[in-house]
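G., the chain you wanted modeled:
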Amino acid sequence: MMKSKMLIMGGLTAALVIAVGGFVLTQLPVGGATTASGPSSSSSTPTQKASPPPSAATADPGTGAPPTDAAIPPADGKRFTTEVQPPGEATQGLPASKVLPELVSAPLPESASAVGALAKGYPAKALPAAPGSKIRNSSVASDKTHLQVTLTAKTDAEVTEVVAFYRTALANYGMYDTPSPALNGATAVSFSRGANSVTVTATPGSGGTTYVVFGTFTVKG
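Predicted structure as tokens:
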């Protein structure tokens, strides 16, 4: 009887040990233990991504508005300016045209003539005699707002020099020359400005050049 009880107690003890061992095994992790060298290469820890560099093209964090071209800096080698030029420093235009002097002005002189000299009232400032000239005769004739003048003289200068002299003198009054018909080997040039005109005819001869100046002018009323 005693031997039977001992066998029963031993069976119960073995059953208890088996039950406890089974419970412990059920609590172990299924994935297996890690090694002492650290986590394996298959670790599930996510890799942190590097933040993108700051850019002027990103949206405004305050308003969320999309980027604009104005926020993008210029490329290397290019420079831009937002400087506004003051109103008083605007690019200047062409200078005002120079006011040309009048060849004759009112009141016009009375008609007159002279031999060996310039007639009274002759516009010597606008139509001077060429340098070194010996005046043969001259005249002025006026009618209301019109004036006609003539001058005949001789000089030691050559034809080209006489023409060049009057070309320079009349350019001060805005009058420029064009060729004009001439006879007997003479050279003639005409100058004009508005209703005013001057013709110079120069003829080469022995001992110099004989020239004739003829001009017609209209004064402003």
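Residues 112-218 form one domain.

Shout if anything looks off.
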